[in-house]
TrEMBL record:
Annotated protein name in UniProt: Glutamine amidotransferase
Keyword line: Membrane, Transmembrane, Transmembrane helix
InterPro entries, alphabetized: Class_I_gatase-like (IPR029062)
Listed SUPFAM superfamilies: Class I glutamine amidotransferase-like (SSF52317)
Keyword DNA repair attached: no
PANTHER family per the UniProt record, alphabetical: BLL2462 PROTEIN
Transmembrane portions of the chain: 12-30, 37-56, 667-688
Length: 692
């Protein structure tokens, strides 16, 4: 109940009237006039009526005390034990707080930001956002249910927006330990065949770090096992290797899980190095000058990464015109140097319309066969001579050739077409103009007929006769283009054709570029978006299996994007190393940043929240019992006024004194009949006294 005024006139006017009334009353008393006291009371009553006094009665209701409970749902909390303890502790807290109707709990689930590539535990940011609409006086305390690995700590002396205890309930055990491996330094690019070095480190965190035994590191490069490494935890370990191939090379390092460690999700690390071929050495041997010779030469010379050695046989042994050799300006064909001494230095050998005319000793063809069997690449661009008695298919080279000529030429105009396998094969798939019928390119006019070839026939001539045959032979590869008229496309005949794309793909397939493998499983990640590609020349490969960093597996359907190419894309909810498997093929990819704070440390700790608890008189305790399962929770202690001391066994909550106004009752003292009666009484008394 309170007294207030709602004046009928401005206070300045009332003040002036009060002065006049006081002067009149004083004058009356000074002159000793009868009834002066009654007149003074009447004037006072009139002034009080003008001031309009009111009695105010406010109806208020006590507000609840808000206690936010911040639940850590980050990746480091996703172990089975911690998840179960977190859920059990949250349920127990809500049950204990429910015994106090004046306390209102707010559960804040703080998980990783799905839009970030570097996940981290941001509990204080989540708390600040959740209580932005609550006055600081109503916050009775904050409870963090976490493993203690928090990455947005504002500092113990920072202003959190409220003055109440901060409590930490830690979900991990005190004796936890964890082993992890990280790539400290490593190149992103390397020249194929040259040595590179990667620096690794094995970390042992937690209770058993001091007496950690040495770790054996398993190494795989592009899925192939390498000799293991021996590493001392905490010390840097170097791994040297030669870059095996061009394109992406995936290096996987893993250490075995120690019994009882927190998680095995960080026991593997992956590093991708892009292999760059410094110079591709190509030997092009043309049997004689012809129209198609320049097409091959121009293509290879236009590539800055290709070192081309080109010889054209202008004066074979049977061509004798009587000119002395010392008067010729021709360069002698260095057969021994090329095919014996330095044959292993070439990445690709091309025989362009070459025929056996005793330029090469017969033994050298056997050297070329061994070169292919040991991993070399050979391309035969055949013309009419390949069907003659001088064909190189009648030499020891025949052991590596995928098709033998029948001795006949097919001389009829035709449109080169993709075979069923060619529509799927990465060398010919998607060639510009191939989707039309007839194909949207010019015709050719002759091919070499061959027996049923080995390998894949990816292009055919008329009547489905083989035109381009690709085959793996031993560790090497062989391609046969059974026509010498690709130059018609280069000259733009009947609109030309995709000769550059075709020739380049053939050469790169022969040199084992990973993106042109017939059977391949690749994966790449852009942030957390995972893209899986499966190339095959067979039937539908079925779904892929994805193994998450947390260890769980999931089937990932692959949809046909084009013939022979299956694709899947998905936004992944976890950050870390994924293993994708389809049939016998396996690949690894890291989604998100490899140095994400969330995986730097997985061992629970009480140290991060301890300074905040000490400053605000809160507590930090573990909810996991010393032995057995379940959780142990402290009791709740409501405190009126400021919390000055902490109780290690109870969660002190500062109860708020805030209220909300529900209604106001107002009683005017000089309004209505009561006010009229007082004024009439005062005036009547004055008049009566004057009448005496």
């Amino acid at each position: 109940m309170a007294l207030t005024f709602s004046p009928l006139l401005p206070w300045a006017v009332i003040g002036a009237l009060a002065v006049v009334a006081a002067v009149l009353a004083a004058l009356g008393f000074w002159r000793g006039m009868r009834g002066s006291a009654l007149r003074a009371l009447a004037l006072a009553a009139l002034l009080a009526a003008i001031a309009n006094p009111l009695l105010i009665d406010e109806r208020r209701e006590a507000l609840s005390t808000v206690v936010p409970i911040v639940v850590d749902r980050s990746a480091s909390q996703e172990t089975v034990e911690r998840t179960e303890r977190t859920d059990a502790a949250l349920a127990g807290l809500l049950d204990r707080f429910s015994a106090f109707p004046q306390i209102e709990t707010r559960v804040i689930e703080a998980s990783d930001d799905p839009d970030t590539d570097t996940p981290s535990t941001r509990l204080f940011s989540a708390l600040s956002d959740a209580i932005a609409d609550v006055p600081s006086a109503r916050i009775g305390g904050a409870v963090f249910l976490t493993d203690g690995q928090i990455h947005d700590l504002p500092g113990p002396d920072a202003n959190l927006g409220f003055n109440a205890p901060i409590h930490g309930l830690i979900t991990g055990r005190a004796d936890e330990f964890d082993r992890r491996i990280e790539v400290i330094r490593g190149p992103r690019f390397g020249i194929v065949g040259e040595e590179q070095e990667i620096t690794l480190r094995v970390f042992d965190d937690g209770a058993q770090a001091a007496d950690a035994p040495p770790a054996d590191i398993s190494v795989r490069i592009n899925g192939e096992e390498q000799p293991p490494l021996r590493a001392q935890p905490g010390a840097e370990t170097s791994f040297r290797f030669n870059v095996p191939r061009g394109g992406a090379n995936v290096l996987e390092f893993s250490v075995a899980e120690r019994p009882g460690e927190v998680t095995g999700a960080n026991n593997r690390a992956v590093h991708v190095i892009e292999g760059i071929r410094q110079n591709l050495r190509v030997l092009l041997v043309s049997g004689e000058p012809h129209s198609g010779e320049r097409a091959w030469r121009n293509l290879l010379k236009s590539d800055a990464s290709v070192d081309l050695v080109h010889f054209t046989i202008l004066r074979p042994p049977e061509k004798q015109d009587g000119t002395p050799i010392n008067e010729l300006s021709l360069i002698a064909f260095p057969t021994r140097e090329l095919f014996v001494e330095k044959i292993e230095d070439f990445d690709l050998i091309i025989f362009d319309r070459y025929q056996h005319r005793n330029v090469l000793p017969i033994l050298y063809y056997d050297y070329i066969s061994q070169y292919v069997e040991n991993g070399g690449a050979l391309l035969i661009a055949a013309g009419p001579e390949h069907a003659s008695e001088a064909s190189i298919a009648l030499t020891p080279l025949s052991s590596v050739l995928p098709a033998a000529p029948t001795g006949r030429m097919n001389e009829a105009p035709f449109y080169p077409r993709l075979s069923e396998a060619g529509e799927k094969h990465p060398v010919t798939r998607g060639l510009e103009g191939a989707a039309d019928e007839p194909p949207h390119w010019g015709r050719w006019f002759r091919t070499v007929e061959v027996d049923q070839p080995r390998g894949q026939t990816v292009m055919v001539a008329n009547d489905d006769k083989p035109l381009l045959v690709l085959n793996r032979q031993g560790e090497g590869r062989v391609a046969m283009l059974l026509s010498d008229q690709g130059w018609l496309w280069a000259r733009g005949f009947e609109g030309g054709g995709p000769h550059v794309a075709l020739y380049r793909r053939i050469a790169h397939w022969l040199m084992k570029q990973p993106e042109l493998e017939e059977e391949a499983l690749t994966a790449r990640a852009s942030g957390r978006t995972l893209t899986v590609l499966r190339q095959t020349i067979g039937d539908d490969p079925g779904p892929a299996t994805v193994k998450y960093p947390s260890g769980r597996t999931e089937s990932l359907p692959l949809a046909e994007a084009s013939p022979g190419l299956y694709r899947a894309e998905r936004r992944m909810e976890e950050t870390g190393l994924y293993e994708i498997t389809n049939g016998d093929l396996t690949t690894l990819v890291h989604a998100g940043a490899v140095d994400a704070p969330e995986f730097k440390a997985m061992v629970s700790t009480t140290e991060t929240l301890q300074p905040y608890a000490e400053r605000t008189h809160g507590i930090v305790t573990r909810v996991a019992p010393a032995s057995g399962s379940g959780v142990t929770l402290p009791s709740v202690l409501p405190v009126n006024g400021e919390v000055r001391v902490s109780d290690p066994s109870r969660l002190a909550i500062r109860m708020t004194g805030e209220t909300v106004l529900k209604g106001i009752d107002t009683l005017p003292l000089f309004a209505g009949f009561l006010g009229l009666a007082v004024l009439l009484l005062a005036l009547s008394t004055t008049w009566w006294r004057e009448g005496r």
